[in-house]
Specification:
The structure holds two protein chains of two kinds. By secondary structure, chain A is of the alpha/beta class. Chain A has helices at residues 32-39, 96-102, 131-137, 152-160, 170-183, 187-190, 203-216, 233-246, 259-265, 283-288, 293-299, and strands spanning 55-67, 70-82, 85-89, 113-121, 124-125, 138-141, 221-225, 251-255, 268-273, 276-282. The model of chain A is unreliable at 1-38 (pLDDT under 50). By secondary structure, chain B is mainly α. The longest helix of chain B has 35 residues, at 44-78. The radius of gyration of chain B is 25 Å and the shape is globular. The chains are: A alpha/beta, B mainly alpha. The A-B interface holds A 104, 106, 109, 131-136, 139-140, 142-146, 148-150, 158-159, 163-164, 166, 189-190, 192-193, 196-197, 199-202, 204-205, 210, 213-214, 216-217, 223, 230 and B 1-2, 4-8, 213, 215-216, 218-226, 228-229, 232-234, 237-238, 337-343.
Amino acid sequence: MEPLTSPPPIRRLKLDDPEPASEASAPAASGNGHAAQQSGFIAAKRSVGAPQFSIRRMEIDEVSVFYGEKEAVKGVSLPVRQGEVLSLIGPSGCGKTTLLRSLNRLTELTSTATLNGRILLDDVDIKLIEPTLLRRRVTMVFQQPNPFPMSVFDNIAYVLREQGSRRQRKKVLEPAVHSALDRAGLFEEVKDNLDHPALKLSGGQQQRLCIARALAAEPEVLLLDEPCSALDPKSTQVIEDLIVKLRDDVAVVIVTHNLQQAYRIADHVAFMYLGDLVEYASATALFGSPREKRTQEYVSGAFG
Amino acid sequence: MKPLLTPKTDSPTQSATPSAAPQPPPLSSGGSKGAVEGSATWALSDRIGLVICWALGLLFCAIAVAIVVFLFIKGISYLDLSMLTTPASAGFSQAESGGFSDALYGTLIVAVLAISIALPTGVATAIWLVEYGRPAALARITESTIEAIAGIPSIVLALFGTVIFSSTALGFLSRSSEGVVFGRSFFAASAMLSLVALPLIVASTREGLNSIPRHVREASYAIGKTKAATVRRILLPSSRPQVATGAMLGLGRIIGDTAIIIVLLGATQNFAPVEEASFPLNYLRGAGTTLTNFVYEASPTGNLNQPEKAYAAAFVLLLMVLALNGAVDIIHRRARKVGTWSH
């Protein structure tokens, strides 16, 4: 965790920055400057406009996850909405990644993990959805850029093809591949090099390829597990802008260690600590005037 | 925007090679120029150790070079291209006794047969061990079994093979007449030779699979792919260089093995096809020979006493092994072009 004791470098702001998202709905925050002083969180202005709409896609209902005897997530309830970005923050080991992974049943790959409670996707319990189908509707991007060791084109085509098959011809898949790359803001950069090995792209391009791959499945929810932690600031900015752009098409859940990032791009923030959901609020409210003492200590850099 | 597809800088191991290039042991007072760390301040025992390491390294290089140079000189002077095309025949002098074409083809047949048994079996075993491995007890037993096979001397495997392939049930794999099974054939020898290659293939395939970070597998599952699809399209292609390395090392062991050939392929210098089978099968069920067997028999120890041809055959064998090493190199260089993940 980066210390927040001294003012962190603040990202250049867009000139036409609209008013912060949930300013109006956060009564305690009478303005960024004031709120920031109150919580000790010295933040940049938010670069995100208020959501135009929000549709509830997933519902996390009293979810607990155990690894053997150890309870990693303790009775957490949260909504996941399309049209806005939900950010999970908290110190290492607080269960935020585990919670994220349980949203598309990736926790089941760990043999000791058990899940109590319900997670609903469009009002259907995800336990009733076949995992491979669920994971096409709720896709995930990982901390380390991990394109597959094949060409840029094939990385996306792999998602579109039936399981292990290679049947569909390049021509058939081309429009879908191009559109996925385009949505991830990568198409212009790689359109002449679609046959190049994906692992030779730069780190930021690789991560956007991973986002394109996750989008190619036409998901309803996009999970991002610290997608920028291995990237330089410039690539981080590109990806942050992309995430904000995507929120209208998919519900976005992002785990981040970077509080500035959560503040910049999230509409709602959930602060977790030792498996508990401590506070869930709009970004401005949570960073500006946290209700809980633990939240306030964390966002002002007292622990973590 | 950044330039497209900027190639990453080379791996550190590559760029580190020049500095790791041999330098004289810096025992002399000043230490060598440009050395990162002089050993002048080292304890005496450390300095002696360093010199010993250097000396041993040079000694092994010298031995390897000596073998290759010796065989090249001998081989080129004795090798006659007609030897590669004429089978061995009975004769009193080396000029009359023909070449070793049957042995050369025998080596190729054994190599192809044995590796086509060992490669799929080994890769499948490795995939099961790394990606599935349940129940854990069975996986542990499999692992130790493979280690045990790797440790068994090939002459013991050969003896075991004679027991198996002389059984009446397996008579269709070798020569059999009136209920008596000869038990020596290309099938029998290749089957046992595949066991020699198997541990190497399993080990290097496992190494390849284990070198793929877990998040890469999860990335494939996280877009709704099954385990089978992930293995086929992501994991196996990514570990191809290691699989190939294992196969090449295995091939080297197969074409270099002598004990199994002598015991399970027959003490003959020619193909001995069986009469009751049709074309490819009659040879594969029959006895034969390979280059290693020929070298052994032609050497002063063996029955043929044709030392010059022994050198010629050994030279051919060496060329094959060197070619395999070269192939491994090429495969790895190609793999480097595709790139890899940061861990």
